[in-house]
Amino acid sequence: MKFKVKLALKNIKARPGRSALLIIIVAFLAASVFGGSTFIGSVIEGIFNYQVRLGADMVVIPEEVDERGSYEGILLQGIPDTFYMDANVLEKVREIEGVEQASAQFFLASAAASCCDSPVQIIGFDPQTDFSIQPWIYKEYNSNIADGDVVVGNNITYNSDNKIRLYNMTLNVVAQMDKTGTGLDDAVYANMNTIRNLMDNATALGFDTFKDVDTDHVISAVMIRKKLGYETPVLAGDIRFGIDGVSVVTPQAMMTGITEGLRKISGVIEISGIIIWVLSMIILIAMFSLIAGERKREFAILRIMGASKGIVEGTLRFEALFISLIGSAAGIAAFAIVYFPFFETIKNKLALPAINPDLIGILLIMLATVVLEVVICQFTWTICVIRIARKDIGLLSKEDE
Known about the structure:
Elements: H1 2-14, H2 16-54, E1 58-62, H3 63-68, H4 70-77, E2 85-86, H5 88-94, E3 99-109, E4 121-125, H6 134-140, E5 149-152, E6 163-166, E7 169-176, E8 187-191, H7 192-204, E9 218-219, E10 221-226, H8 232-242, E11 246-249, H9 251-294, H10 296-304, H11 309-339, H12 343-350, H13 359-389, H14 393-400
Parallel strand pairs: 4-8, 5-7
Antiparallel strand pairs: 1-10, 1-11, 2-9, 3-4, 3-10, 5-8, 6-7
Helix pairs in contact: 1-11, 2-9, 2-11, 2-13, 9-13, 10-14, 11-13
């Protein structure tokens, strides 16, 4: 085996141009496999987190907010926004048959001004009735969120003393949430008392958002958990019909657009991947055939010198192995250098929830890619050279003349 390995490496080094071309082809294949698998996997994980973190069967928001897509922008892309409606919507929702739980939330965008450390989305919730946020907070902070305390999303930065300043109000950061790959990573969570204090501070600082608004009697959204046996579309229709000026957003409806976008992107990736694979396979087979044809004399000399058919075939297999390993490593590295540093930008441009696999997941995808490339190269190389390596020495010599 040692002889086969040394000979294979010597053959690769002896023809650097030919070897480089084969490595580049394999690298393209590896980049397409690793890249497509990583991206699609990250979006699927983001969609799962999005569905789980929403935590409600449906959400009631102002009609105009639904029309401009602000709510989806907050959840998917982390685009801060402020909107509100009369607080009596909460009681009206609770009176509708089929509603098991209803809890109010408030969405307040901080300002890109000196009064705030950074422009973020602040989400206020009622600790007494909430069922969609606190279950996740308890995983990081097993206590009540007091007035002036906040829990921040994974992308939020704060001071080393665990403080963050919003509308000139210094808040205590008591915990930071795990990454979800959604817009919720860019949110700050607080109880309703803290939110109302922030609204009052905003008004005192001269922001007109809540001018002439009774901040004690406004909310942004109502999270709803339905009773068993009630159909979501039917209950959503009852709410729209029974309450003026509101829209009902369901996870299924929001996921329709996301899934459609993912389907289109997946289609592009699949088609591109198929084209790359077909062209690469054709080129590999053609290249290996030409190379095998050029090396008939080499095979004949090896056989004359006493090398068995097994040694010749083994040497060729090791050549294909080394080329596939080097090409796979190059393709994976090239994709990683381009993709991972710009992942957040790509995700935001596509407006899709996405979170990269953890280190173990990435390593598994890498391993699967390398194994696939090795199998492909061994298969194509074998098809082209096995018949030549097994020919009689005399025939090889004559064919080369």
